């Protein structure tokens, strides 16, 4: 599969300023030298504990945050320096769905008005009213939902409006940042099914961010695991669950509760000791070494790069050499 988007060596550092002169005294290293490909038609899952930089990376891809270093390529074009009008085609082709539709949907507008606004801003060439009805129906909402305000709907229905808004301009990529994380499990399943259905119907490509690995496993073809701003491992979904190679990925997978209490008892947990270090002052060498059960001296000194293990599996870890 060809790459539709390429994130190339992207770092995002947020300056921390102090004092009267607002001098920069430090930086939050939210994303550090991330390289990732999003292939046409795939769903790529991005996982990792809270604070590891997933949302920042998503917002960088959406051109809502400027990368400190690196570039984003989309369909052969470097979109990192596009500005104003130059960005409009990109904004049509890459859409987003966020976690909390309550904060991303205007509370004073009905769903019909919300959808109409997006279509008008981007000068939708067809019949706007018909398109609004079509979008609602595509997302499993009856026509009467056009007249409802966000607070008159359930969480699942609001997220359907969020999806309808993302779909409005026929995008190629949808970035889903914790799109189902706030919903009840049964509603989550319905929204995941809808996302799957839409993906098949329109050949969409997803960058799907979630901290719930079981949800990601269900929806995504490939998974990238992030820790403290860096990508630690990437592989096919099946492969990463069957054969996780990075100690951090293993710990994440071990932490998924199993529905079977008997099995749960017999399972060996590789507990992750301690807290995630602060991105203000990340550990030297491999950022995971302070919590890693396999850490060696080398891990404190050198930064491991993502190394290809098989055709579609890569991990950044020195312990893998020792293992091989
Ligand atoms: N605008 C910002 N200014 C300063 N720090 C930020 C900003 N946005 C995010 N951060 C910090 O960057 C790190 C990564 O955050 P985020 O991308 O939201 O992680 P995630 O989505 O994985 O939970 C966190 O330490 C967060 O506090
Ligand atoms: Mg986030």
TrEMBL record:
Start and end residues of each ABC transporter domain: 5-253
GO MF assignments: ATP binding; ATP hydrolysis activity
Keyword NAD: no
Annotated keywords: ATP-binding, Nucleotide-binding, Transport
Annotated GO CC locations: plasma membrane
Membrane protein topology class: Peripheral membrane protein
PROSITE patterns in UniProt: ABC_TRANSPORTER_1, ABC_TRANSPORTER_2
Superkingdom of the source species: Bacteria
Transport recorded as keyword: yes
Gene3D superfamilies: P-loop containing nucleotide triphosphate hydrolases
One BP annotation, GO: transmembrane transport
Pfam families in the record: ABC_tran, oligo_HPY
InterPro entries reported in the protein's UniProt record: AAA+_ATPase, ABC_transp_ATP-bind, ABC_transporter-like_ATP-bd, ABC_transporter-like_CS, Oligopep_ABC_C, P-loop_NTPase
Localization per record: Cell inner membrane
Family to which this protein belongs: Belongs to the ABC transporter superfamily.
Matches recorded under PANTHER family: D,D-DIPEPTIDE TRANSPORT ATP-BINDING PROTEIN DDPF-RELATED (PTHR43776:SF7), TRANSPORT ATP-BINDING PROTEIN (PTHR43776)
Protein name: ABC transporter ATP-binding protein
